[in-house]
Specification:
This protein is mainly alpha-helical. It has helices at residues 4-17, 24-31, 35-47, 71-78, 96-109, 112-121, 125-138; strands spanning 51-54, 57-62. The longest helix has 14 residues, at 4-17. A hairpin with a 2-residue loop joins β1 (51-54) and β2 (57-62). The protein is elongated, with a radius of gyration of 18 Å. It has a single domain, classed as Orthogonal Bundle (Arc Repressor Mutant, subunit A), CATH 1.10.10.10.
Amino acid sequence: MDTRFAQALHALVYISETPGTASSQALAESIGTNASHVRKLTALLKQSGLVESRQGKAGFALAKPKELITLAEVYNAVYPGKKMLHVHQDPNPECPIGQHIGAVLAAAFVGLGDQLAAVLQGQSLAGLISALYRSASSTPKGNQ
């Protein structure tokens, strides 16, 4: 898993907690990436019905209440049609490890993807935001 999932969650938290709409540039500055990358991320989130852009106002807003957005929905938005855990497809067939690693990893991953999906389905964006505020309130000033 690359960082797209974490960046999408970061963007959704920022959008949720920003009054009005959040611009691509503001999201990029918060996430620590460029606005072009943010637009690609938000396009995926928009296609999945998680964010919307408002006519006449530049930027994004949540398309539904944060309590109804699950982390599983966010994962599926940024990795459409992709399993939670998957085996790489092109190991070297001449390598003794490459010849067998796919079957070994597939057996090790049996059920783990489903368990991870269930955990993410049980967590909401609202819960993530609550955890963020708890973390912020317990951090001494100056260490933020």
